[in-house]
Amino acid sequence: MSSDNGLFYSDNVTYSRAINHDYPGILQMAEPFYPDSVGANHSNGFLNSRFTTDMLTTINHRMGLLVAKNKHNGIIGFLGLAPFSAASPSPVVGAMLNSLENAEYQHRPVSESNPFIFGPVCVATAAKGMGVFKGLYQAMWNFLPKDQYRTGYAFVDQNNKHSLDAHTKGLGAKVVGEFDAKSSKFWIIAYARTDKADLR
After folding, report:
1. Helix-strand-coil percent breakdown of the chain, rounded to 5?
2. Pairing between strand 151-157 and 115-123?
3. Count of domains in the chain?
4. What is the pLDDT along the chain (200 residues), one digit of tens a residue?
């Protein structure tokens, strides 16, 4: 496993920041994970919002959109990142930030934890067992300057048990709260950087 400019390569999978050319592949890969898609299987997790090219562009420009590619250069996973800011264009993120306004994590205010927002994350069904989920998060820690970003926060729909288990059991993320938005209930999870998270 090697790293290069905050990205790395592992087991025939390359992790990098998305470029415009990647957006069609991301949209195509995401399609089966929308609840209203034909043949959608919630047991594999799902995406709450249907993405467009403009939305992907905004995510990438605001902070970063990371992708995993197989040896054929096909998109097999992606992870969005965003600043911990009230200026978020997402009403769900806005509701999460409001609920965290006076919250604490690891015995200090959330605002003092060098916070950022992570998600959405999605891994192609065909990539199951390849370590892409954890690989995207390793790429995230390598991509983000460690002196600026120490703790990521994300929301998980309370009906999305697959995603909650993947983050809490697979990564060691912690549930730190919950909130309601758009007629749905969400968990808030926190995922903190550790010294071993950096491979650079």
Report:
1. 35, 30, 35
2. parallel
3. 1
4. 444 444 677 779 999 999 999 999 999 999 999 988 866 677 789 998 899 999 999 999 999 999 999 999 999 999 999 999 877 888 999 999 999 999 999 999 999 999 999 999 999 999 999 999 999 999 999 999 999 999 999 999 999 999 999 999 999 999 999 999 989 999 999 999 987 655 44
- Sequence-distant (≥ 6) Cβ neighbours of residue 139 within 8 angstroms: 6, 7, 8, 15, 16, 66, 68, 79
- Dig out the tokens for 30 from the structure: 């995401």
Answer yes or no: pTM beyond 0.90. Answer: yes
- Domain of 157, in residue numbers: 2-197
Give, in order, the Cα–Cα distances in Å from 183 to each of 42, 52, 86, 91. Answer: 18, 22, 21, 12
* CATH, residue 28: 3.40.630.30
Q: What is the CA radius of gyration of the chain?
A: 16
Cα–Cα distances (Å) from 184 to 124, 158, 159, 187, 188, in that order, read 25, 8, 9, 10, 13
Reported as half-sphere exposure (CB side, CA atoms, 13 A), residue 143 has a value of 24
Secondary structure (DSSP) of 43-99: GG---SS---HHHHHHHHHHTEEEEEE-TT--EEEEEEEEES-TT-S-HHHHHHHHH
Interior CA angle at 160 toward 159 and 162, to 5°? 140
